[in-house]
Design brief:
By secondary structure, the chain is α/β, with parallel strands linked by helices. The protein folds into 2 domains: 236 residues, Adenosylhomocysteinase-like (Rossmann fold, 3-Layer(aba) Sandwich), CATH 3.40.50; 158 residues, Rossmann fold. 38% of the residues lie in helices and 14% in strands. The chain contains 18 helices and 16 strands. The chain has an 8-stranded mixed sheet, with helices on both faces. Strand 3, helix 5 and strand 4 form a beta-alpha-beta unit. Helix 3 packs parallel to helix 16. The longest helix has 24 residues. It catalyses: S-adenosyl-L-homocysteine + H2O = L-homocysteine + adenosine. Pfam families: AdoHcyase, AdoHcyase_NAD. This is Adenosylhomocysteinase. One of its GO terms (molecular function) is adenosylhomocysteinase activity.
Length: 489
């Protein structure tokens, strides 16, 4: 059965531009590569190895159109991808249903996301639907090297490896965009760095892009700024604020992965520990729920009175960070903002306080302020640093302030299937939209598409939906087949 995208789904609803968004002048230096890479502060075994940029590697088909850590890891990476496919049944279902009609035939997608087994399933789904893909990583620590190798072996032009330097990061993005005889016409971004790079460095390419799909708070902020300034010359899709992203990936993914990341890096026991979570959006809600369930005493900081009231009603004390910074054992940032944890806060922390970030960018913790002569950095584990003050006090910094769960652990496959399916459908809709349907602005997913993504995942739980009778549907003023909620829900 073919998918009838035009018939089944209403047009994307234009999302009103909000005032007070962050400044457009947010420079490249304030992006996902803020602060230093590990190579700036330590010497470990990886520093002695040859950079992937210096290696001559080819896959089994003789292609060298990629740059990964070690192409010989491809077989291991393929097994990782196959494991992920088992829990991403909806995406595989979409692949099977739509690969006959090839809705992305002719699409040249340049992507910048975390390169994990789960995103590899998405990338290979896009290829199965007819797209050509070139890919880089949106975080210097989140790439699974064996998965990148498997993608390269399968013919995807992937440029990424775990532990890139800042220069490597931008070089990889540039290699994806700048290729003779190949010009991207679609962008799939996570964090906005790729969009920012194309906009700044390749304006002629940017003007010919048919659509942008963005899945992070940080990247969405940047899109709205471009739109507000009248510089967004292509339609863009705000996937982050779709229900199937925000209410599932942001909440349930973080509820499980926050514990995984902290346990793997520090072996901390949470019972009785005092933890402060900065931000009570969906990410913060997930983190707080998990920590509370293990017996931690959880405080919340918030700027939004509505989110603050939700935190109070959920049983958390809402405080200012300065009020509890001396007593807490763990500090977790979940705001998407900058300088939430400053050097002043870090100076006042107790000995052995754990500091980490669950937001996309590493702007939330002022790590740069810790790169001073009086402080000593000691790497004790992969992605775990002790920053030592002159009096002997230590602060345990995880992933150098970068995204904890994808830098230090893994994330639940099933919930990523929901986001990946949403991204795939958004790309298909934007690419196939008739001229004039979408203007040069930022759009939200229609509720009908959100509901379709959710319905694809229900068979995994053997869930059976109740159907409205004709009389009930008339009483509620709804179509029996949905959408069941208004677009603002």
């Amino acid at each position: 059965q073919q998918i009838q995208f035009a018939d089944d789904m209403q047009e994307f609803t234009k999302f009103p531009t909000k005032t007070g968004r962050r400044s457009l002048s947010r420079s490249i230096s304030q992006s996902s590569t803020d602060s230093y890479s590990s190579a700036a502060s330590y010497t470990d075994s990886s520093d002695d190895e040859v950079s992937p940029r210096e290696k001559q590697q080819t896959n089994s088909k003789g292609s060298s159109n990629f740059c990964v850590k070690n192409i010989k890891q491809a077989e291991f990476g393929r097994r990782e991808i196959e494991i992920a496919e088992q829990d991403m049944s909806a995406l595989i279902s979409l692949r099977k249903r739509a690969q006959g009609e090839k809705p992305l035939a002719g699409a040249k997608i340049v992507g910048c996301t975390h390169i994990t087994a789960q995103t590899a399933v998405l990338i290979e789904t896009l290829c199965a639907l007819g797209a050509q893909c070139r890919w880089s990583a949106c975080n210097i620590y989140s790439t699974q090297n064996e998965v990148a190798a498997a993608l390269a072996e399968a013919g995807v032009a992937v440029f990424a490896w775990k532990g890139e330097s800042e220069d490597d990061f931008w070089w990889c993005i540039d290699r994806c965009v700048n290729m003779d005889g190949w010009q991207a016409n679609m962008i799939l971004d996570d964090g906005g760095d790729l969009t920012h790079w194309v906009y700044k460095k390749y304006p002629s390419v940017f003007k010919k892009i048919r659509g942008i799909v963005e899945e992070s708070v940080t990247g969405v902020h940047r899109l709205y700024q471009l739109s507000k300034a009248g510089k967004l010359c292509v339609p863009a899709m705000n996937v982050n604020d779709s229900v199937t992203k925000q209410k599932f990936d942001n909440l349930y993914c973080c509820r499980e992965s926050i514990l995984d990341g902290l346990k793997r890096t520090t072996d901390v026991m949470f019972g009785g520990k005092q933890v402060v979570v900065c931000g009570y959006g969906e990410v913060g809600k997930g983190c707080c729920a998990a920590l509370k369930a293990l017996g931690a005493i959880v405080y919340v900081t918030e700027i939004d009175p509505i989110c603050a009231l939700q935190a109070c009603m959920d049983g958390f004390r809402v405080v200012k960070l300065s009020e509890v910074i001396r007593q807490v054992d763990v500090v977790i940032t979940c705001t998407g903002n900058k300088n939430v944890v400053t050097r002043e806060h870090l100076d006042r922390m107790k000995n052995s306080c754990i500091v980490c970030n669950m937001g996309h960018s590493n702007t939330e913790i002022d790590v740069t302020s810790l790169r001073t002569p009086e402080l000593t950095w000691e790497r004790v584990r992969s992605q775990v640093d002790h920053v030592i003050w002159p009096d002997g006090k230590r602060v345990v910094l995880l992933a150098e302030g970068r995204l904890l769960n994808l830098s230090c652990s893994t994330v639940p496959t099933f919930v990523l299937s929901i986001t990946a399916t949403t991204q795939a459908l958004a790309l298909i809709e934007l690419y196939n939209a008739p001229e004039g349907r979408y203007k040069q602005d930022v759009y939200l997913l229609p509720k009908k598409m959100d509901e379709y993504v959710a319905s694809l995942h229900l068979p995994s739980f053997d869930a059976h939906l109740t159907e409205l009778s004709d009389d009930q549907a008339k009483y509620l003023g709804l179509n029996k087949n949905g959408p069941f909620k208004p677009n603002y829900y």
